[in-house]
Amino acid sequence: MPLFDTHMLLTVMGVALAGGVIGLDRTAAGQFMISQPIVAGPLTGWMLGDPIAGFVVGAALELIWVLDLPVGTFVPADATIVAVSAAAIAALGAPGGASVPAIGFSILLTTAMVPVTMRADGLIRKWNSGLADKAVAGQGDNAGKALVRAQAAGLALFFLKSFVLCCLFIPPGVAAVAFFGHLPDFFHRAMSLFVKLLPLLGVALVVRKLSMKTLDRYFLAGFVSAAVLGQALHAAAPVVLLATAAAGWLGARYHERSA
Length: 259
Prior knowledge:
Elements lengths: L5 H19 L12 H11 L3 H15 L13 H15 L6 H12 L2 H24 L3 H40 L4 H25 L5 H19 L3 H22 L1
Helix pairs in contact: 1-4, 1-7, 2-3, 2-4, 3-4, 3-5, 3-8, 4-5, 4-7, 5-7, 5-8, 6-7, 9-10
């Protein structure tokens, strides 16, 4: 049975269309947060009958890129395309329910294509800047029409970017996952470990991006103190959490005043 029959190709096109629409939510239109990996991944998995694979993909990628925001001139990785593509590759490459190693391999494949998404995003932004300049230069009755055309063209370009990249990423990824299924168990165990360690990587990246240099040690000290007191006094969990937060906040304020 061929891997890419008519049904598979139509399914890939459908996923790419959905990815194009979801991708608009990043910056171009709506911004209802459905473009976040934690939503886009499970949504794609649900469309393909494997929501668990989509959830694992989305949760892992959300932790990694949760603080990468397209603010100002910064162009972050397009985590939406990565999440949609990875979830689709896992679901289509391993019909009947993707295994943890297959999910890990799908994530690894799509994250390797991040430079392509960033390059495409930069080109689209540059092109849209030109559209905005042309719209601003319009005069009289043509100004409004030029603005509408520029807005529609910008939306179309962002849609096409996500659509085309999904079409480019998913078919080779599905073929690669099918090939991965025939590799020795050593590779499958390695990918399983990779998936299990991804949350730790995500947490480490979040802590690093937040620059928690002073709050972290005071927060840790507060946590230890509150945990000890909680055990000694048999305090309820909310009391322990409140004491932890209060001790960390007071320690940080003391450090700022004494610095």
